[in-house]
Amino acid sequence: MYDLITPTQQTLLAMLADSLKGKKQPTAPDDPVSLWREAHLQGVLLLAFSRVETKTYSPDLQNEMHATVKRLLSSNMRLSIAHASLSSLLESANIPHAIIKGYACSIWYPAPELRQLGDVDFFVAKEDVARAGALLEANGYAPDTKSHKLHEIYFKDGIRFEMHFDLHGIPEGETGDACRSALAGLIQNARLRQTPFGEMRLPSIFDHGLVLLLHIAHHLTNSGIGLRQLCDWAVFVETVTDAEFERLYGTVLRELGLWRFACCLTEVCVTALGIEKKEWMTESDPETARLLLADVISGGNLGQKNVQRSQQAYLITSGSSSRTKRARMTRLLLDMIYQKWPASKKYKVLVPFGWAFYGGRYLLRVAGGKRPRVQVKSVLHGAEDRIDLYDRLRLYERR
After folding, report:
1. CA quadruple 85, 91, 93, 97: dihedral positive or negative?
2. Average of pLDDT values for 96-121?
3. Over 90: is that where the pLDDT of 350 sits?
4. Could you say which of 122, 126, 168, 322 would form a disulfide bridge with 218 (CB–CB 3.0 to 4.6 Å)?
5. Cα-Cα-Cα-Cα dihedral of 289, 291, 292, 298, to 10°?
């Protein structure tokens, strides 16, 4: 299982498994510095080191750890309060909504405060976006100047708020329509839940699990998910009984082409994080789980470990119906010009001029140190390996 990951990463997985079970790590690992750095890149510092004895660490490392843990716990507190304040504001204006992702994941943890939060994500219906936006601006939330396809962004007190009206991970076409249909009750089924920071409107079990799985699929095939999101899935499936999971998801995940992905992702959690094996894992296999774990770890939290993953993602998602690198690269280059110069999609004669202009501009920026050089061979090789893995998962292959 572990031949594609390092001893440091193996140790980190063991620490996470112990933390999720409430066990204490009695001794310091052989290389605490590397372990600390890896945990940071995976977004699991608080969870990994919550039960570790650090008295034998060097004073410099102890000081760094204490300062970082204090900062992260303080950030989690601020973000948790921000979640509750936002939900209260929307409730006061009778705007239906649901808090999703970060805090909605943390409530499934044995110690919710150890799940590192990044920003505030919430979902509103498209018809309520303008009204919700006006309410936020009237209460000191500053809108982002950029336009976004699936959400609007606001900032307040240094915190980022993402108001979603559609979700990442939903594919194009009929499968996308089926995903939206399955999540049609996301807002309606959300319920107020009392938290230490105030009431929040959180998704139902079904909606939370499906949003989480779509979110993981999206980031996995783009920049990467890292161990933080793997832990999110582990604590969720560990809490839901086998019978309940099968009842909630057995049909819908097969219809959406996500059942095998859920099985393989859970197989990784069983092997790497020590959760109980699930009876419903009917389509998992050790080899795919081994490759999937390596892929999760290689990217780190949202791709922090490998900048090439975002470059690979363009190749993975372009011309996805073709299995050849040449066809995918051609489709990628076409998509880039179509996006930057929409007229070229209608007038194909403009495409070579677009390649010359934007390609030349890129080379000038690389020469001037404004853009990093893309390592084409490495990107192609990495993308090819990831395409093979995602083909094994049969993502969105409906039945």
Report:
1. positive
2. 95
3. no
4. 168
5. 150
pTM, rounded to two decimals: 0.84
The stretch 203-212 carries a mean pLDDT of 97
Which structural domain range is residue 330 located in?
A: 308-393
Q: What is the pLDDT of residues 353-393, one digit of tens each?
A: 776 776 666 556 656 766 555 555 555 555 667 777 878 88
227 occurs within a structural domain: no
What average pLDDT does the chain have? Answer: 85
Residue 181 belongs to a domain: yes
Q: What are the tens digits of pLDDT across the range 26-84?
A: 555 678 889 999 999 999 999 998 878 788 888 998 899 999 999 999 999 999 999 99
**What CATH number should be reported for the domain holding residue 195?**
3.30.460.40
How confident is the model over 130-144, as a mean pLDDT? 97
Q: Which of 208, 231, 246 is the C-terminal boundary of a domain?
A: 208
148 pLDDT band, cuts 50/70/90, is: confident
273 is a domain residue:
no
From the list 223, 210, 284, the residue with the least C-alpha distance to 251 is 210
pLDDT value at 340 more than 90: no
Is residue 12 a contact partner of residue 41, using CB atoms and an 8 Å limit? no
Cα angle 87, 88, 90 (rounded to 5 degrees) comes to: 65
Q: Which amino acid is at 252?
A: V
Distance between CA atoms of residues 375 and 169, nearest Å: 27
Domain boundary among 208, 223, 258: 208
Q: Is the dihedral of CA 54, 55, 61, 66 positive or negative?
A: positive
Q: Is residue 272 part of a domain?
A: no
